[in-house]
Design brief:
Layout: H1 5-8, H2 27-42, H3 49-59, H4 63-74, E1 79-81, H5 93-102, E2 106-107, H6 114-120, H7 123-129, H8 141-148, H9 158-165, E3 173-176, H10 179-190, H11 199-204, H12 225-242, H13 247-253, H14 262-282, H15 285-295, H16 300-310, H17 314-326, H18 331-347, E4 362-369, H19 374-382, E5 389-391, H20 395-404, H21 406-409, H22 438-450, H23 453-463, H24 479-488, H25 491-503, H26 505-508, E6 515-518, E7 529-535, H27 543-554, E8 559-567
Parallel strand pairs: 4-8, 7-8
Antiparallel strand pairs: 1-3, 2-3, 5-6, 6-7
The structure holds manganese (II) ion (2 copies).
One manganese (II) ion binds near residues 514 and 535.
The chain binds three DNA strands through helix 11 and helix 18.
DNA sequence: TCCTCGTTTG
DNA sequence: TTCACACCGTCCT
DNA sequence: GACGGTGTGTCTCAAACGAGGATT
């Protein structure tokens, strides 16, 4: 029943109508109306006039017009050629369009920039339209646009374009005016702008399957209008910045420091951090340092140290570096600070600090004939029936964690789940995630000592098969791998890995070795597995890999770094 | 006339 | 949209 | 060696389609 989350996910709440996408040709309209109903019911107190007005107008439309509008909303961009809107289930487009224009939901004579025109029309059509203005009509489309740009730098309505070019337009163009309001409704429904309305069909078809987590009828992503606006503002700023918008304008458009929402403040901080990064690259170091200071991001301290170093301000840099080493925000910061400190000491003419060498790692060297990926090559080479090798990287340990702790991860905590298409709890990456579920996780982890972890993981593997999870990538698992892993990995090691993961999910869910080798025939009590990080020529251990290896060394877990060099063709070696 | 890439579809 | 790798250049010791 | 930048491949939901540019 996970394939139809809409029908089962909501506990004590009005059910979403399930669009039978196999038979209803207007399945997308059913889904969209479900969103409107959902949002109206849950956000009645937070909707603004724009949103209310849209919902009212939409509901008053004939069904063909509603369908056409939703088709446009779900397609890319806001501008459409009428001759590209062909839908059997809608029929006569002009008839469906008329009420949309009448209600102001669609503009039938929109201003178009040259860029827009080039998006809408094909190369051949544009050559026809601008026949009299193109010296080299055989050029690439991009060059044609460049040639026209100086002359046609105004946004014009279609009729004016025809007049300016001296030819008739080959198709009518309309523009959706309701895209922003639809985006806000999407944001309110999903709590993010990453998920599209298409999640509905994919879930209906069982392509996406989501865990069914009960939540109360008043559950929603946002609790205040201000949060919706600020989320929107931050998102808008990030988009503008990524599109190369002016930095000062973007910074000015960001909301003020958000005191009442750690979550939004962190999102705001990430945009500031990205802008600071950009300044740093541009050589605007002072500006960068200042922005890093405002970002509130944990990684910002190291960046500020680097910037101060580049500015020649070694004394303040060292002060920050010492602070970072004294109370590192993360293992990653400790690691980086330890690398920077000797440089600063040298620059300041201070005594060379005692450096602490990396923990020694078991190492092996291989010369192999060149072929596809190094990891696959080494896997093939080492694999044997008695000691099978798998190329798993992060997927195995994360999956074991995700399966063992399934109930804790999908626990119905208030605020964690609020729509049927979530692959995990909304607060997964927030710092309080673990603390708010400590008991639940400890209960799951206790199975490692109670001796029931194998059954639990196998059972979850079977019963949750294919359901989206932030930790389980189903394609990377199979029965053989899972059985061997459960047989050979000691529960104490699993606990250590899982607890490490829980201390910082974002940082610790990556960096695990490429390969894992099992020794199922080794006697009980000896090491029956080995993790192998493969390094091709010219690749060295990354920071997160070093951290993982150091962690394993502290816990007596077998890790080997396997260095590969390619055998030359002639066998000259 | 192919090949590649982005978009649309359910 | 993520993570890992390959490979480049730069500074510095 | 440290550090940063860039590009690539693996993911992609999968299939169909169309536009553009390279290929012949
Ligand atoms: Mn790897
Ligand atoms: Mn590797």
């Amino acid at each position: 029943m996970n394939s139809t989350p809409a029908s089962t996910a909501v506990h004590d709440a009005p059910l979403l109508t399930v669009a039978d996408s196999l038979r209803d040709p207007r399945y997308y309209l059913v889904n969209f109306e479900n969103v409107l109903t959902w949002v109206s019911e849950r956000y009645n107190d937070l909707l603004d006039d724009d949103e209310r007005d849209f919902i009212t107008r939409f509901q008053g439309l004939p069904v063909a017009s509603k369908a056409l509008l939703v088709r446009m909303v779900m397609r890319k961009g806001e501008h459409f050629r009428l001759d590209r809107l062909n839908y059997d289930e809608i029929g006569d487009i002009d008839a469906a369009l008329a009420p949309l224009i009448e209600q102001g939901l669609v503009d039938n004579s929109p201003c178009l920039t040259l860029d827009r025109l080039f998006d809408l029309f094909t190369r051949d059509e544009l050559v026809g339209l601008f026949r009299d203005h193109l010296p080299r009509p055989r050029d690439r489309k991009a060059l044609l646009k460049e040639a026209l740009a100086p002359t046609f730098d105004q946004a014009l309505v279609p009729e004016a374009w025809a007049a300016a070019a001296g030819r008739a337009m080959v198709a009518d163009v309309v523009c959706l005016t309701v895209m922003p309001v639809c985006e806000r409704l999407r944001l309110m429904f999903f709590g993010n702008l990453r998920q599209q309305f298409s999640e509905f069909v994919l879930a209906d078809q069982g392509i996406y399957r989501f865990e069914v987590v009960p939540f109360t009828p008043d559950s929603r992503a946002f609790q205040s209008r201000a949060d919706i606006e600020r989320y929107w503002q931050i998102h808008d700023c990030r988009e503008r910045f990524e599109a190369g918008g002016d930095m000062d304008e973007v910074l000015a458009a960001l909301p003020e420091c958000i005191g009442d929402s750690v979550w939004l403040e962190a999102r705001r901080g990430r945009v500031i951090h990205a802008i600071a990064r950009h300044c740093e690259r541009q050589g605007e170091l002072v500006r960068a340092a200042e922005l890093y200071g405002h970002s509130g991001q944990a990684e910002a301290r190291i960046r500020r140290i680097r910037v101060l170093e580049r500015l020649g301000e070694h004394q303040p840099a060292l002060a920050l570096c010492t602070a970072a080493q004294h109370a590192p925000a993360s293992e990653a910061e400790r690691q980086q600070a330890a690398r920077i400190q000797p440089r600063l000491h040298r620059a300041l003419g201070m005594a060379k600090p005692l450096s602490q060498a990396d923990a020694p790692v078991r190492r092996c060297d291989l010369a192999l004939p060149r072929s596809g990926s190094v990891e696959r090559t080494v896997r093939e080479h080492l694999d044997s029936p008695e000691a099978p090798v798998f190329y798993v990287e992060n997927t195995l340990i994360n999956a074991l964690f995700g399966l063992l702790c399934w109930e804790a991860i999908f626990a119905p905590l208030p605020g964690a789940f609020f729509h049927p298409f979530q692959s995990g709890p909304a607060d997964l990456m927030r710092p309080e995630f673990y603390l708010q579920r400590e008991q639940l996780f400890q209960r799951c982890l206790a199975r490692l000592e109670e001796g029931t972890w194998r059954e639990t993981i196998q059972q979850r593997y079977r019963e949750k098969q294919g359901i989206q999870s932030p930790f389980v990538h189903w394609g990377a698992l199979d029965d053989e791998l899972l059985s061997l892993a459960l047989e050979c990995l000691p529960p104490a090691h699993l606990r250590a890995w899982f607890e490490r993961l829980l201390t910082d999910i974002r940082a610790n869910r990556a960096g695990m070795p490429d390969l894992i080798r099992f020794y199922p025939q080794a006697p009980e009590g000896t090491s029956r597995y080995e993790m192998i990080e493969v390094k091709g020529p010219g690749d060295r251990l990354q920071d997160n890999q070093k951290r993982w290896i150091a962690f394993c060394a502290r816990h007596d877990m077998p890790v080997t770094v396997c260095h590969v060099r390619w055998q030359s063709e002639e066998g000259a070696s």
